[in-house]
Amino acid sequence: MGRSTKFLHSLLAQVRAYYGLRQQELAALLGVGESLVGHLEAGRRALTLAVLDRLAPFTRQMVEETGPLPTAPPLGVFDHGPLEARRVACLHEAANLRWAVRGLPAQAAVAARWVQALPGLLAALPPPPPADEAPATAEAVRLRYAHAWLALRPQALPPEELARWYLAGARATALEAEAAALAVRLSE
User: Fold this and answer.
1) 34-42 vs 23-30: helix axis angle to the nearest 10?
2) By its UniProt entry, which SUPFAM superfamilies does this protein fall under (predicted)?
3) Which of the two ends of the chain, N or C, has the fewest CB atoms closer than 10 A to its terminal CB?
């Protein structure tokens, strides 16, 4: 896509925004299909001279009323309200993410303790009765239960929980960085 195509598709979008037109309405005014307007705005197609001629009265009116089309809003002239609202929302969402995974470090620590303790605990227990035999005593029932229960202990934090922990932390850090950048902009 060449430089002129970017400018022209940007110009078409500015005309639509200036006049508050939907793609369908602009297409009807220009005598082209609605899909062509979408392709032109997205930069997938280049404007033809015929479409440029039909677009000229719209752009002429825009230039007469407002002067040349600005490429960016003037620096320093903006409403602080939306930026402050976004900054607060970022901090709130980051706090919620950190709160949601607050128990995972403790859960991981408990799982790590079990990984260390399990071999010693299993070695200290007498072996359970064979699985095909019914336990003859209460002690045999307890041993079978203890071995089965210890076998089900978590060996580590499940991978999906570990991923959730890292992703939530990364997202919270990004939101906090965004909030800090907004705070700098608001203080200027």
Assistant:
1) 110
2) lambda repressor-like DNA-binding domains (SSF47413)
3) C
